[in-house]
Design brief:
The chain has about 375 residues and is of the alpha/beta class. It has a single domain, classed as Vaccinia Virus protein VP39 (Rossmann fold). It is about 40% helix and about 20% strand.
């Protein structure tokens, strides 16, 4: 069965799925610039700076066995089963007013894929281990890091769905906190990842307090599904954080600065274009991220076509509009605008950047549906 581009309905093969960057798009635009006046000169310098960032920071990934297996996932299911699932999804949306996300969660269809475990290790895992061991920012781990995990610290995944994408990064940490707005997705995520703390919420500014409250309530009521080892990790994390907060309060009392974030790593995969207030969301992410060692892994679909999906399945424009290249612009211009106009002003710096397909499980019409993702690995820049 064919692979379909979810933007333009073009039929693709696995070999057509893009992973690379055409840096010449930046160069050619710069060469064509008229540099006779100051404004045009400024544009040329900005283009040159971004081109340099891409050349230094871009990580070339490629399709691997785990990606291929997901691309074939729905093709291995009988066509009649796929057709009946699609019909059931339509009924839930039209007759019960469910959103597409909620309907898919109820039926267990429409699973998503962004990074394989190997791709996550190359893009994020080795940097995490290097920083954890006290290495310099932007550095890489050595071969001993290939199968290492932190087994400590905290990972926050925003908009986790069933948790399949989050699990690729969550396995590096002792404690995982996942947020999701769909009740059916929350249920599936919690059932699949019993050691995680899964929160049904659409806000993150108070996620640490919600994390503490839910774990305290589960302990009190005896309803926790976590293993004893996972419970111990949560207790150690909270005890460590309480000690850090005490030290910070004492420091502030002596005229010192404010405290840092709570999480060692935060992941947000294909959520920014579905946020009502994306700039506000990024501000909260920055506040939650540890300032020196924390990493923010952000995947965004390009071309950038934002909307907010309501509980009844209807859509509306977000309240905050981001200045990102128009829907017909090339991937290269979209990722440039995301960084220059959104991420940099929000207080982030690029550690790595890559391009991967965002794959959705297929149905009776296609083996899989793909979109084009940019993946940023970011750190907090100096206070803004």
């Amino acid at each position: 069965m064919p692979i379909i581009c979810a933007h333009c309905n073009q039929k693709l093969t696995a070999r057509d799925v893009p992973y690379g960057v055409d840096v010449s798009r930046y160069s050619s635009r710069r060469i064509r610039s008229n540099v006779e006046d100051e404004n045009d000169q400024e544009e040329e310098e900005e283009e040159s700076e971004w081109e340099s960032i891409v050349r230094r920071k871009f990580v070339q990934l490629s399709r691997d066995a785990e990606t291929d297996a997901f691309l074939l996932r729905s093709s291995r299911r009988p066509r009649l089963v796929n057709a009946r699932l699609a019909q059931a999804c339509t009924r839930l949306r039209e007759k019960e007013g469910k959103s597409l996300t909620e309907a898919n969660a109820i039926l267990g269809r429409g699973k998503m894929f962004v990074l394989s475990r190997e791709q996550a290790r190359v893009l994020v895992g080795r940097s995490l281990m290097h920083r954890h061991r006290g290495g310099d920012e932007g550095g890489e781990g050595d071969d001993d890091d290939d199968n290492a995990v932190l087994d400590a610290g905290a990972y926050l995944d925003i908009g986790s769905g069933e948790g399949e994408v989050a699990s690729k990064l969550g396995e590096y940490f002792g404690t995982v906190v996942a947020t999701e707005t769909s009740p059916a997705m929350v249920k599936r995520c919690a059932e699949s990842h019993k050691d995680w703390t899964v929160l049904e919420t659409g806000t993150i500014e108070d996620v640490w307090e919600k994390f503490k409250m839910q774990n305290a309530r589960e302990e009190e009521e005896g309803t926790s599904t976590k293993s004893e080892a996972a419970k111990k990790k949560v207790r150690e994390l909270l005890d460590e954080e309480e000690g850090t907060e005490t030290t910070e309060r004492q420091h502030q009392g002596r005229g010192g600065g404010g405290g840092g974030g709570k999480f060692d790593c935060i992941g947000m995969f294909n959520v920014l274009d579905r946020c009502d207030r994306p700039f506000t969301m990024l501000s909260h992410v920055r506040n939650l991220l540890k300032p020196k060692t924390g990493l923010f892994v952000l995947a965004v679909v390009l071309p950038f076509r934002p909307f907010v999906e309501l509980d009844d399945g209807t859509r509306r424009p977000p309240s905050e509009k981001l200045d990102v290249a128009t829907p017909t612009s090339a991937w290269e211009y979209g990722c440039r605008d995301l960084y220059e106009n959104v991420l940099k002003p929000s207080g982030f710096e690029i550690e790595k950047i890559s391009r991967v397909p965002y794959v959705s499980e297929g149905d009776h019409l296609a083996g899989a549906y793909v979109l084009d993702d940019v993946v940023f690995v970011l750190r907090r820049s100096a206070d803004v």
